[in-house]
UniProtKB/TrEMBL annotation:
<dbReference type="InterPro" id="IPR050109">
    <property type="entry name" value="HTH-type_TetR-like_transc_reg"/>
</dbReference>
<dbReference type="GO" id="GO:0003700">
    <property type="term" value="F:DNA-binding transcription factor activity"/>
</dbReference>
<dbReference type="InterPro" id="IPR009057">
    <property type="entry name" value="Homeodomain-like_sf"/>
</dbReference>
<feature type="domain" description="HTH tetR-type">
    <location>
        <begin position="27"/>
        <end position="87"/>
    </location>
</feature>
<keyword id="KW-0238">DNA-binding</keyword>
<dbReference type="Pfam" id="PF00440">
    <property type="entry name" value="TetR_N"/>
</dbReference>
<dbReference type="InterPro" id="IPR001647">
    <property type="entry name" value="HTH_TetR"/>
</dbReference>
<protein>
    <submittedName>
        <fullName>TetR family transcriptional regulator</fullName>
    </submittedName>
</protein>
<dbReference type="GO" id="GO:0000976">
    <property type="term" value="F:transcription cis-regulatory region binding"/>
</dbReference>
<feature type="DNA-binding region" description="H-T-H motif">
    <location>
        <begin position="50"/>
        <end position="69"/>
    </location>
</feature>
């Protein structure tokens, strides 16, 4: 059987949109398969991995694997979704001690770049198999960026409702610009800014992102 390659135009969008779902909780076999798939994809990449490889690594039969995940696409989607869910959880941890909206933007920007670039699966795929993930960020009609933009806009809207950001700020537009800046750094690493230097990344956010929170 030839494993079907995940559709790059929808993989990240679905993973991001549904990242907070935990449908696999309570299903020990599904969790074992997800753990095995994560390890397999990190080691071999998505294209070179099959459902049989994952089943073998999880210690279950191929039939059992297909009963939990009908296709390889479905398994890949769930693995990527779980990684983004972990990122969202870490994002909230990273900004929880910030004292202002500006500080949360700075810490959140650094957290996003660090978490995604250093994630063994997602960051690794962007380096080794960029044609699986990168196209979904830049050539899917804007759907993936729109999904991330909605998440960022939601965070900024909470800041507005709490009185930390002026009502005159267009949070939709600000979120759009912040999302595009982040995506640009992820897709095309900078030769000017060391993205592994958190202080440099935070300084970029302070100088160019935080001012967008101030009404003109």
């Amino acid at each position: 059987m030839i494993a079907k390659t995940p559709d790059p135009d929808s993989l990240l969008e679905r993973a991001l949109t549904d990242a907070l779902e935990r449908a696999e909780e309570g299903d020990e076999i599904a969790l074992r398969l997800l753990d095995a798939a994560y390890e397999q994809f990190c080691r071999m990449g998505i294209r070179r991995s099959t459902m049989e490889d994952v089943a073998r690594r999880a210690g279950v039969s191929r039939i059992t694997a297909y009963r939990r995940f009908a296709t390889k696409d479905a398994l890949v989607e769930q693995v990527v979704r779980r990684e983004f869910r972990r990122y969202f959880d870490q994002f909230l941890i990273d900004i929880q001690d910030a004292e202002s909206a500006a500080d949360r933007v700075v810490l959140g920007f650094a957290s996003a770049l660090r978490a995604i670039r250093h994630n063994p699966l997602i960051g690794g795929l962007m380096t080794v198999e960029p044609d699986v993930l990168v196209p979904s960020m830049v050539s899917d009609g804007g759907h993936t960026l729109a999904t991330v933009q909605r998440f960022v806009a939601g965070q900024l809207r909470r800041e507005q409702h709490a009185g930390h950001v002026s009502e005159d700020v267009d949070v939709e537009l600000v979120a759009e610009l912040m999302t595009r800046v982040s995506a640009s750094f992820l897709v095309t690493p900078s030769h000017v800014i060391d993205l592994d230097d958190d202080e440099q990344v935070r300084e970029v956010a302070r100088r160019f992102l935080v001012p967008m929170l101030r009404p003109k």
